[in-house]
From TrEMBL:
Cellular compartment(s): Cytoplasm; Nucleus
Main location: cytoplasm
Signal peptide positions (record): none
Name of the protein in question: Suppressor of fused homolog
Domain of life: Eukaryota
Length: 471
C-alpha cells in the first residue's frame, strides 16, 4: 500500500552523509529540472520492498512541468521512480557491483501525463502503473530498453480510454546520472492505442515513437500521454502514417519474431493411416510434446509476440536490445533470441517432409505477408506457436543459422515443430499470390493457396475449425 506525502527527503539535502547516495543522485537530476519544486508530492511505499512489502519502488516523485510553449509542448505532470536503481548500496535490495556498471537494474521509470484543466494536484494512478512495471522487472529480471513495448490490454487509468498499452523511450529531459553504485538512465513510459502497439510490434517501437513525436495530440516532442486522446496517429493522418510504417517494414524489416496463433500443419507425404502421421501430432487427443529445449527456444522467440486471445497481467517483454541498435545484417540465427542452442532431442529424430499443408485462422493468416516481407526478406525467421496445442511452425530464410530445415530439405519436423525454409525467389512469388491477405477487410473463408511445384499448400480457415479440431 502506498501513501502520498510531501517529499521529506528533499528537506534533508543539506545532510548529505545521512542521505542515501543513490537517492541523492536522482534527486539532484530532478532539482536541475525543477529547482523551484524542492518538496514535490511523493507516493511512498508504506512497507518498503526490502522489509517484505509488495511494491519495489520506494518512492515516486510527482512534478508539475510547464512544458515548453516555444515548442508547443503542453503543461503536464512528470513522474519519476526511485527503486529500480540501487539507492542505498548496502545490498538490501540490489547487489552492489561497483560504480562502473549499471546501478541496480540500471534505470528508473518516468511518465509524462497531460494536465487537465483545473487540476491542482497530480493523479496518483500512474504510481501504481509504475509499481506494476517494477514488479515485473523484479520478478522476471528482464530489464527494459528504449523502444520496448508493453501489452497491457486495459486502459492505463482504469477508465474507458483508448490508451491501453505502453512504449518505452529515453526521457527527453532527464540525463543519465553517475552514482557511487553505478549509472542510472531514465526510461519514459508512453501510453499508446492498440493500433499503435500493433504497428510497433510489426515494425519497431522507435519508428512509431518518432511518428508520435510529430503529432501534437499523440504526445509531441516530449511524448506526453493524453488519456483523453480518442484518435490514433493513423486516424489523424491515415495515408501518410501507414505509408511510413509500411515503408519502414519494407526497408528495415519487422521486429515481430513470432505470434501465438491458431494453426496446424499436416504432412501430406504420409498416408493418413500411418501412425507417425503429423496430424496425430498436431491435433490428436494426446499430442506428442515438444522437447524442453524446443519449448524454451519457441518461448524465447515469442517473447515479444502478440498474445492472441489471452490477457496476462503483464505479458512478457523482450529483454534484448532492438535490432536497430545492432549492425544491420541479412543474416539471422535461431539462437539469437535464446540462450539455449538448438540441439535436437536425442529421442526425437528430425524428419524431412516432402509435402506440407499449413492451416491458419484469419487473424494468423493476415500476418503471412508481414512474415514474408518484414522477416524472411531481411534474413530473419518467424514463428507461429499454436494456442490450442503444442504445435509450432517456423518460417526461416536461407540466411538463418541453426535451422534444421535446409535448401535441400526445406520442410523438416522436430516432433510437432515444423520448420519451412523459403528462398528469396519463392518468398517473392508467395507475396504476389497472397496479396489479398494484406487487405484489412474480412475475406470470405475458406481460402486456399497452393504451389504444386513446391509441394506446399496453405489454407486460411474459420476459427471454428481450430476450436473443434476433432469434429
Amino acid at each position: 500500500m502506498d501513501e502520498v506525502r510531501p517529499n521529506s527527503g528533499a528537506q534533508a539535502h543539506g545532510l548529505v552523509p545521512l542521505f542515501p547516495p543513490g537517492l541523492q543522485a536522482i534527486y539532484g537530476e530532478c532539482r536541475r529540472l525543477y529547482p523551484e519544486q524542492a518538496n514535490p508530492l511523493q507516493v511512498t511505499a508504506i512497507v518498503k520492498y526490502w522489509l517484505g512489502g509488495p511494491d519495489p519502488l520506494d518512492y515516486i516523485s510527482m512534478y508539475r512541468s510547464m512544458g515548453c510553449p516555444a515548442q508547443d509542448i503542453q503543461e503536464h505532470w512528470h513522474y519519476v521512480s526511485f527503486g529500480l536503481s540501487d539507492l542505498y548500496g548496502d545490498n538490501r535490495v540490489h547487489e552492489f557491483t561497483g560504480a562502473d556498471g549499471p546501478s541496480g537494474f540500471g534505470f528508473e521509470l518516468t511518465f509524462r501525463l497531460k494536465r487537465e484543466m483545473g487540476e491542482t494536484a497530480p493523479p496518483t494512478w500512474p504510481a501504481e502503473l509504475m509499481q506494476g512495471l517494477a514488479r515485473y522487472v523484479f520478478q522476471s529480471e528482464n530489464t527494459f530498453c528504449s523502444g520496448d513495448h508493453v501489452s497491457w490490454h486495459s486502459p492505463l487509468d482504469n477508465s474507458e480510454s483508448r490508451i491501453q498499452h505502453m512504449l518505452l523511450t529515453e526521457d527527453p529531459q532527464m540525463q543519465p546520472v553517475n552514482t557511487p553504485f553505478g549509472t542510472v538512465s531514465f526510461l519514459q513510459i508512453v501510453g499508446v492505442c492498440t493500433e499503435e502497439l500493433q504497428a510497433a510490434q510489426q515494425w519497431n517501437g522507435q519508428g512509431i515513437l518518432e511518428l508520435m513525436r510529430g503529432v501534437r495530440v499523440a504526445g509531441g516532442p516530449w511524448l506526453i500521454t493524453d488519456m483523453r486522446r480518442g484518435e490514433t496517429i493513423f486516424d489523424i493522418d491515415p495515408h501518410l502514417q501507414q505509408e511510413r510504417v509500411d515503408q519502414g517494414i519494407e526497408t528495415e524489416g519487422s521486429n515481430l519474431s513470432g505470434v501465438s496463433a491458431k494453426c496446424v500443419w499436416d504432412d501430406l507425404s504420409r498416408p493418413p493411416e500411418d501412425e507417425e502421421d503429423s496430424r496425430s501430432i498436431c491435433i490428436g487427443s494426446q499430442p506428442r510434446r515438444l522437447s524442453d529445449k524446443d519449448t524454451e527456444q519457441i518461448r524465447e522467440t515469442l517473447r515479444k509476440g502478440l498474445e492472441f486471445n489471452t490477457k496476462a497481467a503483464l505479458p512478457p517483454i523482450n529483454n534484448q536490445r532492438q535490432s536497430h541498435e545492432r549492425p544491420q545484417s541479412r543474416k539471422d540465427s535461431l539462437e539469437s533470441e535464446s540462450s539455449a542452442a538448438i540441439v535436437p532431442h536425442e529421442l526425437v529424430r528430425t524428419r524431412q517432409l516432402e509435402s506440407v499443408h499449413l492451416k491458419f485462422n484469419q487473424e494468423s493468416g493476415t500476418l503471412l505477408p508481414l512474415c514474408l516481407r518484414g522477416r524472411l526478406l531481411h534474413g530473419r525467421h518467424f514463428t507461429y506457436k499454436s494456442i490450442n496445442g503444442d504445435t509450432a511452425i517456423t518460417f526461416v530464410s536461407t540466411g538463418v543459422e541453426g535451422a534444421f530445415a535446409t535448401e535441400e530439405h526445406p520442410y523438416a519436423a522436430h516432433g510437432p515443430w515444423l520448420q519451412i525454409l523459403l528462398t528469396e525467389e519463392f518468398v517473392e512469388q508467395m507475396l504476389g499470390d497472397l496479396q489479398e491477405l494484406n487487405t484489412r477487410e474480412e475475406t470470405k473463408l475458406p481460402k486456399e493457396y497452393s504451389w504444386p511445384e513446391k509441394k506446399l499448400k496453405i489454407s486460411v480457415l474459420p476459427d471454428s475449425v481450430f476450436d473443434n479440431p476433432l469434429q
